[in-house]
Amino acid sequence: MTKWLNSIRFSYIRSHVHAVFTVTIIMLAFLLTIHVIVDPVWLTRTSIFMFISTYFVLALIISAYTGYRAGGHLKMYIDGISVLIAQFSNGNYDSTIYSKEDNELGRLSNELNALGGKFQNQVQSLQRLADENSEFTKSAHKAAVIEERQRLARDLHDAVSQQLFALTMMSEAALKQFDHNPELAKEQLQEVTAAAMQAQTEMRALLLHLRPVYLSGDPLSVGIQKLIMELKQKCQLEFRVDIDDNLVLPEATEEHLFRIVQEALSNILRHANASMVKLTIIDRDRDIFVHIGDDGDGFSIQENGDKKTSYGLKTMQERVNELGGTLNVRSSKGDGTYIDIRIPKMTVQDETRAE
User: Fold this and answer.
1) What is the pTM of this model?
2) What radius of gyration, in Å, describes the C-alpha atoms of the chain?
């Protein structure tokens, strides 16, 4: 009932009834004025009452019918416009509305039809742009592969290659001392063992970077669990993982977060000398929070003289910036390193605008 009272048809009926009531009052006042001043024989109070009553009833019926018909005509056009807008919102931009009226409603219908045509042209332009972006992405991917290979070559030369050279030199020195000074040879062999373990750790970290950049269709939680399972088989790190299984994120966001976690774990393997890693990814209303912590050696953020660690943090910061988030690093020597990341979630309106 309330919905009908607020409808356009009832508004038209109400406006017509108001007009009838106003005209009735004016006519009654006019007839009474004549009756008082002129007092004609034919104009009695009874005749005035009968005339006004008859006029009001007939006018009320006619105004209600006229208001209903006129309101229905306008309602039909508004319903058509509403359906057209709903079609636009569903992506059916080729929908149109037909109007024979040469008034404001007709002009509004024509403008909506023209707007639908513009939307259709915009969709075609976006599709062409998507094709162009696909080609650009392929070129950028090739360039990224080349850059990653060059970086890995530098890391192999700067870390593993030098450590293997050092292993060779220390092994030869231990062999020379084996007969003459067994104690010194033993110490040198212990250094060889430590250097070999460090080289093995470096190699594991480099192999971690050789994983695919993309999740290959897996959800973020599944991809990270697979990554951690591989690391558990190759190193003695203890992992405490808490990832929200109900995360629903855009594909690009998942890929960036996967690479951020991958970079953080690589840094821990190579530099932290840690025994435990804690990884948490949770959904908090409008934000995604990521926490990565370890109980390793830590470092001084002010000094931050380790160029490799600085490079890894810089890479993570760049990826977080691309997602519009924030990254906070807490660390000190001997107290481990803790990374907190906040990524804002895209709302439905944001995704619609991005599309």
Assistant:
1) 0.46
2) 40
